[in-house]
Design a protein that fits this description.
18% strand; 5-stranded mixed β-sheet; binds 5'-O-[(R)-(carboxyoxy)(hydroxy)phosphoryl]adenosine; alpha/beta; binds zinc ion
């Protein structure tokens, strides 16, 4: 079967076509078309993602992304049955809030026709609601146009599955498995006792890790998104062995539970830089001080959870899992003799941050369920959707 997947939860507009043979989780997944537009350059000016701007950009780029993915896949049929006035009216209704998109889609349809797609997976949450709605409404319109079912998909489940995807298959998990999800909006520990069953055993009480990276980067004058920028400086500081600039607290380290908190850490950085002009070396050292504390806390809680639940597989996922210092620290848990029997799964480069391949994987996991419940009628964007 061929699954079309759409991701618009934050500042990436992404569309993929994945050819799937077999059933979840042992299927073969071949990506036959993949396109992604990052809005980072647009949001950088504002120092973060601006939801209404994100929505506008998704509207402008979603159809070009679909066209690009289809071209790559060579699935374009060219056969174009004419649309009835009823169908045209329905498309305008569905894309009522995506100004101009219905007309573009109708023009597109007249040249491209219906590709041989079996289902559409779309991120319905969590994320920025104005941004999510663009993907959701576009998926509804395509579903109506092509008469194919839609699978509402959880973005965080997508991150989990992306981290165990090797480009063809999902790694076999040994249970209980544990996912540490670290992104711009989430920091959570998710326990999996079996495929598709998720239990949140820890989460942040305030800021997410990625958010803390972004805010701290802003405090020291680095552009958005701050994660990769901080990471670069921190690496440099380690290589040059720069002395510490600030003695930052490790929040919730000994709280005894599996929760996190990062807003106090951000405040500590703010206080450390207040009313000072930092030299480049001081900024570099501070980035390292911050990254050290974050990774210390994440690894500490990860160890605590591994022991409490006798974890067999650990999955690191979400945009911050692109961070090399964190990846090395997580990998070291099994490389050393500490947990030699625990398998560690890290996402491949390019699959850590938001993309639509992960939405195809999560969509496939819930395909049967969506087919049996006619998900289209109840499909909506859920900013606070939770695993
Ligand atoms: O998962 P993601 O792409 O989007 C959300 O769903 O939020 O995560 C984006 C977050 C941003 O906060 C970004 O600064 C962070 O991931 N990030 C990183 C790195 N690359 C991206 N944080 C630390 N180190 C990195 N190398
Ligand atoms: Zn994400």
């Amino acid at each position: 079967m061929i699954l079309l997947s759409i991701e618009t939860s934050c500042d990436e507009t992404a569309v993929s076509l994945v050819e799937i043979t077999g059933s979840f989780p042992t299927a073969t997944y071949e990506v036959i078309g993949n396109s992604l537009f990052s809005q980072i350059d647009i949001h950088r000016e504002y120092g973060g993602v601006f939801p209404t701007l994100a929505k506008r950009e998704h509207i402008a780029t979603i159809l070009p992304m679909l066209e690009r993915a289809l071209e790559e896949s060579k699935l374009v049929s060219g056969y174009t049955p004419a649309l009835t006035s009823e169908e045209i009216k329905k498309l305008h209704e569905l894309l009522n809030r995506e100004h101009g998109l219905a007309d573009q889609l109708i023009t597109f349809h007249t040249t491209v026709g219906k590709p041989p797609i079996d289902a559409i997976a779309v991120t319905s949450g969590p994320g920025l609601e104005p941004a999510l709605w663009v993907g959701v409404n576009f998926a509804k319109a395509l579903s109506t146009l092509w008469n194919v079912p839609v699978v509402p998909t959880d973005h965080m489940e997508g991150h989990i599955l992306a981290s165990i995807y090797d480009g063809h298959h999902l790694a076999p998990l040994r249970f209980p498995a544990l996912a540490l999800l670290v992104s711009g909006g989430h920091t959570e520990l998710i326990l999996m006792r079996e495929w598709g069953k998720y239990e949140k055993i820890g989460q942040t009480r305030d800021d997410a890790v990625g958010e803390a990276f972004d805010k701290v980067a802003r405090l020291i004058g680095l552009p958005y998104p701050g994660g990769p920028e901080i990471s670069k400086l921190a690496k440099d500081a380690r290589q040059r062995n720069l002395p510490p600039f600030a003695n930052l607290p490790a929040p919730m380290l000994n709280s005894g539970d599996l929760d996190f908190s990062f807003s106090g850490l951000k405040t500590a950085v703010r206080n450390a830089v207040a009313a000072k002009t930092l030299t480049d070396d001081q900024k570099t050292a501070l980035a390292r001080d911050f990254e050290d504390v974050v990774v210390t806390v994440l690894i500490h809680k990860l160890r605590q959870a591994i022991e409490a639940y006798t974890i067999q597989s650990v999955i690191l996922g979400g945009g911050v899992s692109a961070n090399s210092f964190l990846r090395e620290a997580v990998a070291a848990l099994s490389d050393t003799t500490e947990y030699p029997d625990t398998t560690i799964h890290l996402p491949k480069v390019g699959l850590a941050t938001d993309n639509s391949i992960m939405i195809a994987l999560a969509g496939h996991a819930h395909l049967a369920e969506a087919l049996s419940t006619n998900a289209l009628s109840t499909l909506r964007a859920l900013g606070n959707r939770s695993l």
